[in-house]
Structures are given as structure tokens and as C-alpha cells.
Amino acid sequence: KTKNQVLAFDFGASSGRAIIGYLEDDKIKMEEVYRFSNDPVIVGKTMYWDTLRQYYEIKQGMLKAKQKGGFKSLGIDTWGVDFGLLDEHGVLLENAVHYRDDRTIGMQEEAFEKIPKEEIYHLTGNQFENFNTVFQLYALVKKRPWLLERAETLLLTPDLFNYFLTGKKKAEYTMATTTQLMDAKKKVWSEEILSALQIPQHILADIVPSGTEIGEISDDICEELGLEKAKVVSVASHDTQSAVVAVPTQKEDFLFISCGTWSLFGTELEEPIINEDSLKYNVSNEGGYGETTTLLKNIIGLWLVQESRRQWMREGVEYGFGELEEMAAKVKPFESFIDPDAPEFNSTGNIPKRIQQFCARTGQKIPETVGDVVCCINQSLALKYRYTLEQIEACTKKKYPEIHMIGGGIQSALLCQMTASANNKKVIAGPIEATALGNIAVQLMALGEIENLKRAREIIRNSENTKEYTPQNTKQWEEAYCKFKEIIIHN
Ligand code: ADP
Ligand code: LRH
């Protein structure tokens, strides 16, 4: 029997990759055929995604996959919340704006004057973040209404590329749940929120479940690239949800941290949890594959290391991620802590300096060397995970024996070890390419090669090696956690 190869495009905020996958001997075999950087472009005061370049990279990836035996279907996942606007001819009106752009600053407060915060939360169950699609759109309503008047369709990033490839305009479910515009219970666009904020409802596309075959790559593109016809599957197109598909467990209740540019810490549920506690802790209910819900918290993640590395590069020194980790492992730990999610760390710029300023302001030792800064970031992330763990456990009223860490960030053994120690729980790390694996698994389910989600996770567990970390120095970490809580509460 010839194997059915599928092609996954996984766009992270830092890089994108094209990975071929197929099922063999009860394992998913993968081969990365293409990797590219995904750099935002600042023009004037606006931070854009390079949308057409990203589409170009998809074409490059398809060409590479063709050289490796081709593919029956293709699926795209990306970061959440961002979108492109199309006119009545289906032409992109402007490049997608990056979620780190500051057009949304102050928009939450203005929106809450039109519809109370509590009401938005009770409808959507989403964590409040400036960058949520709802506040990006409200920024347009307030600042550039003509753009919305010109728009006929809004498509979130993976849906936009699916449209470029097939001509079909759909809104995939997991991605739709990142907008804070979807009614979490009814699973439709929320008329209440849209009308309160004067966001035109007609621009939103029909919501389709993850795993829907939305069409085929168009004849023009097949001709341009010399490709065979292939299906386009709307996978769990929010990258976080593709990663959750790939958690290598058979348990119903599990904890995961998807570690990349962001750290997404959560658990899978059958139904959303939307109550006073979840609102107080600002925890998100986001849609997962098969209409599951993931209760999770967005934590700023390894963005802090990435952006510090860029700063050091601007200062003339280029470090590899492995090198940074080695330097961090050598310095004295527990010297200083930051709240990684403090607003000043969100935007691009001199993160090491902002970390030093945070430490000075909170009366702590100032991290001086590169190793000090990276150590401070990693230990603060591990402690923020602990803080988040307590919030998740308070919402679900459950305790969990272990944490699955998945994604590119687990290449940092230091972070995995610190996470085990800070949370006093075993960490099971792997797979690194969880997102691409989840993307591939959903395509294989759509092609009928894998029966269901549980079976997909079993196959993924067979396919990938994991590494375990057990807690160490728990007394010191307990003390560090008390200090950390003081700092973040009083900051
Ligand atoms: P994205 O969310 O952009 O897809 P990835 O999942 O690819 O991100 O993870 C990238 C991050 O993984 C980097 O920012 C870096 O912090 C970490 N990382 C990658 N390689 C290593 C390494 N060799 N050692 C330590 N950390 C690493
Ligand atoms: C992670 C992620 C996360 C948020 C952010 C904008 O890549 O998708 O879940 O939505 O990007």
C-alpha cells in the first residue's frame, strides 16, 4: 500500500516550517522539508506581518514537498488572533498587522464602556489580552473605520492562506475561539459583542470544525508550481491547539505547557469553565480539536529570550540558544525575579534593560551578565508556571501528577528542569515538533487513516521519545516561590 503523505505548515511567531508526515508501523514519521524565518516588518509606526512573503514561503514549502514524493493533503496552523481583510474582489486590503503592534493599547478600556468586561467574559470565556481580535477590530472602528467599510471579508491567518490556496472563505473553529468574538457556549459569532462595538458581522466567515476538508489547491497554483491536485484541510489551525492534539498521553485529565515564543499552560476539558474564579484569574477557554475546550493561560514565554538575543545582536554579539542556556546554567540562581507578563516586556526593544529596570524598581539584585539575565528569565517563567498551575487547579478543582511540556522551547533542558522543580511535579518533555505532529494527525484523521483523537495521541506516543525531569532542590524553590509571589503581587 502506498503511504499517504500529508504536508503540515506550522507558522510560529519566530519561524515557520513545512513538514511531511505519514503513517507507518503505527507511528507518524516526519521529515522537515523547509524552514524559514517569520520576521515582522515595522513601517512607520505599524508592525506588520509580511503576509505575501509568508504565502511565498508556503509555495516554496510545497515545491520542496513535491521533490520528496508529494502530498495528498495540506494543513496550515499559525499563531492566534491576527487577520487579513479582503475587498469584494477577494483582494487583500493591507498586510496583516502584528498582534504586538500598539494600536490596541487602551482599547480594552474603551470597549468596556460599550459592553461590560464581565459580559464579554461570560459570553466568550477568553483571557483578556490587548491583542485579541476583538480589540484589534475595535481599534479599527475607532481609528480607521474606512478600512472596515471597504472590507467584505475578514479571515484569520490560516483561513487567509487556505483562501489563497483554494478560493474558499471559511473560519476554522479553534482559530475563531482566539478572537474573543465567539460565543463559547453556542459556538457562533457573538452578536451581542459585535453590535455593541459596531464591528460589522457580515465580514466574518462561516465557522467550520477542525479537520474539515475545505477544498483543493486551485488549478492555477497547481499549474504554476507543477503540483498534483491535493486537498486543503482546515486542521486545528490555531498552533496551540495543534500542539494539544499531540500531547502524548492517554489520560483524560492532563496538564500541558506548549513552549515556544509563548508558553500556553492548560488542560483539556469537555465543556468551558466560565465563572467568577476563571474571570478573576483571567483564564482562557479556547476551542480544541473535536470541539473540546482547553482551559489555558497565555504566558509570555521564550519571547523574552528571543528578544533579548536580538538586543545582544544589535549590540554586536550573536549567541545561539544553546549557548545562552549554558551561560544561564552557570550563574547563581534565585538572585532576582521578574513578572514575565508585566506589560513592559510585551513589545519589541531592549528587554535586558527593562529586566534590569524591573529588578531595580522592586529592590532586587540587578542581573548584569548575559547569563544572569537568561537565568532570571528562565526561573521567573518556571515560577510563573507554578502561579498559573494554582489558578488552573482552582478552576478545575483537580490535582495533576505531572506536566507535559511540548514545543521548540523544551530544547532548553534548563527550563524543563526548573519547571519540574518550581512546580514540584514530574515533567514529561516531548515532542519538540508537537504542533506539526498535531497538524499532521488531524490531516490523517480527515483522510480516515487515524480513527480519533485518543488513537492519534497513542500513535504520537509511539512515535516520539520523551524525556523526564524530576523535581530538585524543592526547599529552595519553595522559598523562591514565596519571594516571587511577593514581587508580582506588589509590582
Ligand atoms: P514558535 O512559537 O515561534 O514556533 P518554537 O516552538 O520553534 O517557537 O520555539 C523556539 C524557542 O525554543 C526559541 O525561542 C528558544 O527559546 C528555544 N530553543 C530553540 N532551540 C534551543 C536550544 N538549542 N536550546 C535552548 N532553547 C532553544
Ligand atoms: C501561540 C499563540 C497563542 C496566542 C498568541 C498570539 O503561538 O497562538 O496561543 O494566541 O500566539
From TrEMBL:
Family stated for the protein in its record: Belongs to the FGGY kinase family.
Signal peptide per UniProt: none
Pfam families: FGGY_C, FGGY_N
Originating organism: Aequitasia blattaphilus
Protein name: Rhamnulokinase
Superkingdom per UniProt: Bacteria
Entries under PANTHER family matching the protein: L-RHAMNULOKINASE, SUGAR KINASE
Keyword Nucleotide-binding: yes
Keywords per UniProt: ATP-binding, Disulfide bond, Kinase, Nucleotide-binding, Rhamnose metabolism, Transferase
Residue ranges annotated for the Carbohydrate kinase FGGY C-terminal domain, each copy included: 256-447
Database matches in InterPro entries: ATPase_NBD, Carb_kinase_FGGY, FGGY_C, FGGY_N, Rhamnulokinase
Domain Carbohydrate kinase FGGY N-terminal: 6-245
